[in-house]
Amino acid sequence: MSANAVVRGEGTGFRAARRVNQSLTAAMERRVLHWMAEHAPRWVTSDQLTVLGLAAQVGAGIGYALTRYDRRTLVLVILCIALNWMGDSLDGTLARVRRQQRPRYGFYVDHMVDIFGSVALMCGLGWSGLVHGQTAMAMLVAFLLLSGESYLATYTLGRFELSQGMFGPTELRILLVIGNLELLRSPYATVLGHRFLLFDLGGAVAVVGMLAMAVVVTVRHTAELYRQEPLP
Predict the structure, then answer these.
(1) At the top level of CATH, which class does the domain 18-228 belong to?
(2) Cα(131)–Cα(201) distance, rounded to whole angstroms?
(3) N vs C: which end of the chain shows fewer Cβ within 10 Å?
């Protein structure tokens, strides 16, 4: 069944939201994931991939925490980010290719896994010393705010927007890998003669970007819902 098809949960009025992904890598990623799902061994299940995605994100958080003692563990973080992409992105594709969709279960579990994984990742990053704890906390709060808006929009508008503009989860992972490679070289960046932690700068940009995005999409979705349900 197509990823955009409407699926009813048995015995409920639940409708799976239409998935929208217009990120830079979306088309290529879709083809790669479909190929991987078609060639995956039969013993591999979507639940196993979901667990892999969560374990890898927790592993990335542990890897970040260990950089406090040895920065070379960033290599482990990069590996975990790649495994998280595979688990988090392939589980739904595998279910659709095998026609084993569980729309309510999948939506709930996937997003709770994202929340727990993000908390683990940011806790590890905050402990690492590569970024100030306040910056890591601000990134987590901004991410959860944007996630909450996405979940509410999915329920009220019937579409799940995986990307905002050209950026989606895969683009963010790519940027994180690039940042990790820079951290292997040096954890600092110099701007206008002042030295800062590289991830403090990147985190500040990320927080401002996510907060601005949350405000913009909230206004847009509020206006859309108002047009659909105007006052009499």
Answers:
(1) mainly alpha
(2) 9
(3) C
Tokens representing 45? 């299940």
186 sits in the region (left: phi over 0; alpha: psi -120 to 50; else beta) called beta
CA distances to 20, 25, 101 from 30, rounded to whole Å, are: 12, 8, 17
Q: What is the pLDDT of residue 7?
A: 42
Mean pLDDT by 10 residues, the chain (232 residues): 40 73 94 97 97 98 97 97 97 96 93 97 97 97 96 93 88 96 95 93 96 96 96 90
For tokens 């929009």, what's the residue?
Answer: 153
Give kind and range of the element (H or E) at residue 111.
helix 103-128
User: Residues near 185 by Cβ (< 8 Å), separated by ≥ 6?
Assistant: none
> pTM, whole model, 2 decimals?
0.90
CA distance linking residue 19 with residue 162, whole number of Å: 7
Q: Which of 206, 224, 70, 105 is nearest to 161 (CA)?
A: 224
